[in-house]
Design the sequence.
């Protein structure tokens, strides 16, 4: 689904909700100035945002193909925050209204169900935004976040109690309940499908001091070079958590491959994987592929392990005998960090249009380019910068800095694509 279509659907949903709200207020939109009705409007929009953030986190192919999973999750976080803020406003207005008019707070069961839902959303939301600051492991907050699948039905119970049966809002909530059930069934179905179609590890190859490629065989997978998978390994009866990795293989190959760098708890154990171990693969995801871009000359800018989508694209281009002009800039701290180096040299000989520029940021005796990938370096090799398609994949700080340099050099944002190894 193209992002524009998604936004049209969202706007139509909001307009419908506004219309439905006007219907229950009886006196028309001026009721916004009555706290009693305004709080219902906040609740209605708040719940729509919360519902949409579920839709966005479900990895639905229909939406993902247009947005890319990273942008979907970015939007998911924003929608979650907006939804929680609106529902909190609803609670506040309600409290003020009840206190002002009746002087007492209702102890009705359905009210407390709503309070529990709001508290649940607020706690899981705060954890998601602050897990790094609070030193909580990625897997821990992710597991706690799943509680939202139980919290949303609580919110629905609360609104069903309050929505007059037969009103438009009532039917809207019925539609949401049905769609939510659909989302849960889709998620479970996907999980079961992946469990029933495991891949097998067929090779484990050390690419550099701390980089290991895993090769898998299993069901044929249709993907574009540059896309990524979610990978879970079953080793010695132990199932790992799920981690995203770019497919470093080419879609022209029979095997799938990923090339994780040792960075933390899971990636440090990749080297312990054995041939014959099982892998559960959920793929493909992402839109970071030159096949999705306009037909211009390509500039690939990689930082460290950010080379993986580019090696996949170059392998694919070589296999397809693609005659494209590609300039690859690849920065690393030291040449000992390089992986796929021999293969890159070979690709450069085979592919007429490929030029690679290796940059070392912390190796004084390196004979090639040293320092950072900046505007001067890009100008030195590219001469004309606008008019090309730029792809950047590397650590967030590097990616941001290169993006700023490109914009300074008048490259339109529409010609720059970025993949960040963080969801
Ligand atoms: C689209 C995409 C493609 C990627 N491709 C590659 C690749 O080709 N090669 C490579 O080496 N790395 C890649 N990564 C990064 C890789 O997923 C993380 O380095 C890895 O998940 C870290 O796990 P850990 O337990 O070893 O580290 P930890 O120390 O536990 O985590 C380090 C950081 O990695 C992220 N992270 C941790 N666990 C997960 C998880 N289960 N899901 C999502 N993010 C997580 C979090 O931001 C966390 O703060 C990619 C990431 C994304 C989003």
Sequence:
């Amino acid at each position: 689904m193209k992002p524009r279509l998604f936004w049209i659907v969202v706007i139509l949903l909001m307009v419908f909700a506004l219309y439905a709200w006007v219907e229950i207020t009886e006196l028309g939109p001026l009721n916004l100035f009555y706290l009693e009705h305004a709080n219902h409007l906040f609740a209605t929009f708040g719940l729509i945002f919360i519902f949409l953030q579920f839709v966005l986190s479900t990895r639905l192919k229909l939406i993902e193909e247009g947005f890319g999973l990273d942008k979907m999750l970015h939007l998911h976080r924003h929608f979650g925050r907006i939804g929680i803020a609106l529902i909190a406003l609803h609670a506040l207005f309600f409290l003020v209204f009840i206190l002002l008019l009746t002087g007492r707070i209702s102890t009705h069961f359905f009210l407390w169900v709503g309070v529990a839902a709001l508290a649940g959303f607020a706690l899981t939301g705060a954890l998601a935004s602050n897990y790094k600051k609070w030193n909580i492991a990625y897997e821990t907050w992710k597991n706690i976040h799943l509680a939202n699948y139980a919290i949303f039905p609580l919110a629905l119970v609360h609104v069903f109690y309050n929505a007059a049966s037969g009103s438009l809002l009532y039917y809207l909530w019925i539609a949401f309940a049905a769609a939510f059930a659909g989302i849960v069934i889709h998620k479970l179905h996907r999980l079961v499908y992946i469990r029933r179609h495991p891949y097998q590890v067929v090779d484990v190859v050390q690419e550099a001091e701390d980089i290991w490629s895993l090769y898998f065989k299993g069901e044929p997978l249709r993907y574009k070079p540059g896309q990524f998978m979610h990978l879970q390994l079953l080793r010695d009866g132990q199932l790992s958590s799920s981690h995203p990795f770019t497919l470093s293989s080419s879609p022209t190959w029979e095997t799938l491959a990923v090339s994780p760098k040792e960075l933390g708890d899971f990636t440090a154990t990749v080297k312990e994987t054995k041939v014959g171990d099982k892998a559960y693969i959920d793929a493909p995801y992402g839109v970071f592929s030159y096949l999705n871009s306009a037909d211009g000359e390509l500039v690939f800018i990689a930082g460290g392990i950010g080379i993986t989508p580019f090696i996949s694209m170059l392998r694919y281009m070589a296999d397809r005998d693609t005659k494209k002009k590609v300039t690859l800039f690849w920065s690393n701290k030291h040449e000992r960090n390089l992986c796929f180096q021999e293969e890159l040299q070979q690709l450069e000989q085979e592919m007429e249009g490929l030029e690679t520029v290796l940059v070392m940021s912390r190796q004084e005796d390196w004979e090639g380019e040293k320092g950072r990938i900046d505007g001067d370096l890009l100008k030195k090799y590219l001469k004309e910068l606008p008019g090309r398609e730029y792809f950047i994949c590397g650590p967030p700080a590097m990616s941001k800095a290169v993006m700023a340099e490109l914009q300074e050099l008048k490259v339109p944002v529409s010609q720059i694509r970025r993949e960040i190894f963080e969801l």
